[in-house]
UniProtKB/TrEMBL annotation:
Organism: Sphingomonas telluris
Recorded superkingdom: Bacteria
Catalytic activity annotation: dTDP-alpha-D-glucose = dTDP-4-dehydro-6-deoxy-alpha-D-glucose + H2O
SUPFAM superfamilies the record matches: NAD(P)-binding Rossmann-fold domains
Single GO molecular function: dTDP-glucose 4,6-dehydratase activity
Name this protein carries in UniProt: dTDP-glucose 4,6-dehydratase
Length: 352
């Protein structure tokens, strides 16, 4: 196993939820330089990077990953030795309503980024070429719905939504650039993430912020769909370990141990809020739960098998869900200045 932390990392999508968690962690827990390339779509937020914005080993550039020329300049200027590719359109419901942007960024954008990185990598000396890594951050959703006792392994791709199909397509391109051109890559799949700084159109922050604003809390179908919730800090730690220890061409799963039905998670959030921030009318937040027609193509569950990440990277999730959820709810209570402006702008939040 190699144990070699890259020195100068380009993070695409670093102003997003997982990207910013990774950058905050990486800047403070390594000696490496972090360069963020982010388009700042509705989901990108420089406030999420405020704690490291004046750090001498941090740089931010607003750019689209599809701008191959601009990416090429950054790669050379910064002598980048690893790319962590997180930039993507990420919301399944948005992908159903308007898939074009998902094709543009997640597939075409990934292709253009790969071309820029490949040209740069080919200019490097042999040692630098061997040490280089392009890490594609993928999702459990590319494998499609899992059976109850199934462990999902890489190889079986059955994406259900435009989002997961576009992520699978991007992943195939990355693997092809490895097999055909020799670009050193890592691919990781993660289950649903939660934690501070998550845009309030995803289930957990949507539930918290709707509850706090007295709006109805939508739950799809009968709420039976399960997700394995992974704390974003556990994911960020996994990405850092994979960069240092991951095999060239390796695939790693970052999955939480236990799956929970959506309705169980929503009720758990209501219970914590009832305790931390009781409603003025004395009623439970559960009163706000509203079952809405199911999402088309809604996968019942996913099941990642994290054994290889445990064995090869020494990674396993550390944050127990109940603890992480409580801490996340507390963060949203304490950080209204981060999320209230996002809720006020209805143009950026058509479904919440
Ligand atoms: N959130 C999850 O539960 C989860 C789980 C598994 C995998 N992933 C993957 O992790 C990555 C990050 O997810 P997230 O939840 O942090 O997403 P996010 O929506 O919070 O952030 C995405 C970021 O990408 C940027 N971006 C979008 N299009 C861009 C473009 N064309 N050029 C440059 N930047 C662009 C946005 O401005 C934003 O900062 C994605 O690739 C996603 O598929 C997410």
């Amino acid at each position: 196993m190699r144990d070699l932390e890259p020195r100068r990392v380009l993070v695409t999508g670093g102003a997003g939820f997982i990207g910013s968690a990774f950058c905050r962690r990486f800047v403070s827990s390594s000696q490496s330089r972090v360069v963020v390339a982010d388009k700042l779509t509705y989901a990108g937020n420089l406030l999420s990077l405020a704690s490291i914005s004046s750090h001498p080993r941090y740089r931010f550039e607003r750019m689209d990953i599809a701008e191959a020329d601009a990416i090429a300049v950054i790669l050379r200027e910064e002598a980048i030795d690893a790319v962590v590719h997180l930039a993507a359109e990420t919301h399944v419901d948005r992908s159903i309503a308007a898939p074009a942007e998902f094709i543009e960024t997640n597939i075409v954008g990934t292709f253009r980024l790969l071309q820029a990185v490949l040209a740069y990598w080919r200019e490097l000396g042999q040692t630098a070429r061997d040490a280089f890594r392009f890490h594609y951050v993928s999702t459990d959703e590319v494998f499609g719905e899992a059976g109850r006792d199934e462990k999902q392994v890489s190889g079986n791709y059955f994406p259900s939504s435009p989002y997961s199909a576009s992520k699978a397509a991007g992943e195939h391109l990355v693997r092809a650039w490895h097999r055909t051109y020799g670009l050193p890559i890592i691919v990781s799949h993660a289950s649903n993430n939660y934690g501070p700084y998550q845009y309030p159109d995803k289930l957990i922050p949507l539930t918290i912020t709707n509850a706090l604003q007295g709006r109805s809390i939508p739950v799809y179908g009968d709420g039976r769909n399960e997700r394995s919730w992974l704390h974003v800090d556990d994911h960020a730690r996994g990405l850092q370990l994979a960069l240092a220890r991951g095999r060239n061409g390796g695939t790693y799963h970052f999955g939480a141990a236990m799956a929970q039905a959506n309705i169980v998670v929503v009720r758990a959030i209501c219970a914590v809020l009832d305790r931390m921030n009781p409603r003025g009318n004395g009623r439970s937040y559960e009163d706000l739960i509203t079952f809405v027609p199911d999402r088309p193509g809604h996968d019942l569950r996913y099941r990642l098998d994290p054994r290889r990440s445990e064995e090869e990277l020494g990674w396993s999730p550390a944050v127990p869900f109940a603890e992480g959820l409580e801490e996340t709810i507390f963060w949203f209570l304490e950080n209204k200045s981060w999320w209230l402006p996002l809720r006020a702008d209805t143009r950026t939040c058509p479904i919440c």
